[in-house]
Amino acid sequence: MSVIFLLLSVSTLVAGIFLAGFIWAVRKGQYDDDRSPAVRILNDSTPLAPLPGIADPIAERNKANQ
Fold it and tell me: Distance of CA 9 to CAs 13, 15, 16, 29, Å?
């Protein structure tokens, strides 16, 4: 029976530590901006250089349409 009380007290202590860590992270602003890091790569304005030896179908189609 004493093992149950030990496990309950230890698990309550661990849960309290995690709750305190979560509250600390929220107060420090860790969860303020959760949208823009995920879409930041989509707004990249620098074009990528084509790989050497690989044909670029979009560039070839644009040349054909001119």
Answer: 6, 10, 10, 30
Mean pLDDT of 3-26: 97
What is the pLDDT, as a whole number, of residue 9?
97
Return the HEC string of the chain: CHHHHHHHHHHHHHHHHHHHHHHHHHHCCCCCCCCHHHHHHHHCCCCCCCCCCCCCHHHHHHHHHC
Sequence ranges of the domains in the chain = 1-31
pTM: 0.50
How much is the average pLDDT of 12-22? Answer: 98
- How many other C-beta atoms lie within 10 A of the C-beta of residue 48? 6
